[in-house]
Design brief:
7 helices, globular, two-component regulatory system, 4-stranded antiparallel sheet, CheY-like_superfamily, 14 strands, transcription regulation, Sig_transdc_resp-reg_receiver, single chain, transcription
Length: 221
């Protein structure tokens, strides 16, 4: 899981990044609205699984950024962070397109649970077990089964399957997929990506991953 954290409190942000890293969650941290991606977006601007967005920032209100992103068609899951428990703030955020709210101070376990919940909804899955036809995927356990048989996948192959399974039936551009597999570094070389796709096809069936020439790959629903 790779998230974007927009939070101005230095101590809180640093502690949160450390806690997330300990749980295997990578993150990028911005401290101002001005540092957040803004329309028109480049392909690499929003390659995150989720955004943690503080309401109160030094150069504006996180709710304004939420509104701009939603108006621009950004569907990325967004969890608002606030030190305020006012019902009006939460209703404004939820009506404006926030997927959830979490109130400071919070436990890392609660945040992780909320992250998993919004990602399940984003992937149109109702539980921790993702079902795509005869494929059953358990993201937390890094495990996958096909027709009941456990698949012997390398970490990279499982990561690839998970990214494609987030939106079955939707074409994931090659560039986006290559960057998602290396969220904190250089995007994966396309030739390597093709090798991993080929290996995954051999294990789950070639017909389950469709190549859209010149665009990317799609997991058949």
């Amino acid at each position: 899981m790779h998230i974007l954290l927009i939070e101005d409190d230095f101590d809180f942000g640093a502690a949160l990044q450390r806690a997330l890293k300990a749980e295997g969650v990578s993150s990028e941290w911005r401290r101002r609205l001005a540092d957040a991606p803004r329309p028109p977006f480049a392909a690499e601007d929003l390659l995150y699984d989720c955004v943690l967005l503080d309401i109160t920032l030094p150069d504006g209100n996180g709710l304004d950024l939420l509104q701009r992103w939603r108006s621009a068609g950004v569907t990325l899951p967004i969890i608002m962070i606030t030190a305020r428990s006012a019902l009006e703030d939460r209703l404004t955020g939820l009506d404006g397109g926030a997927d959830d709210f979490i109130i400071k101070p919070f436990a890392t376990a609660e945040l992780l649970s909320r992250l998993r919940a919004v990602l399940r909804r984003y992937a149109q899955q109702s539980s921790e077990l993702w079902c795509v036809g005869e494929l059953l995927i358990e993201p937390r356990a890094h495990s996958a089964r096909l027709s009941g048989e456990r698949l012997d996948l390398s970490p990279r192959e499982f990561q690839l399957l998970r990214e494609l399974a987030r939106e079955p039936g939707v074409v994931v551009p090659k560039g986006s997929l290559a960057q998602r597999l290396e969220p904190l570094g250089e995007a994966l070389d396309f030739s390597l990506l093709e090798v991993y796709v080929s290996n995954l096809r051999r294990k789950i069936g070639a017909q389950r991953i469709r190549t859209v020439r010149g665009v990317g790959y799609m997991l058949q629903p």
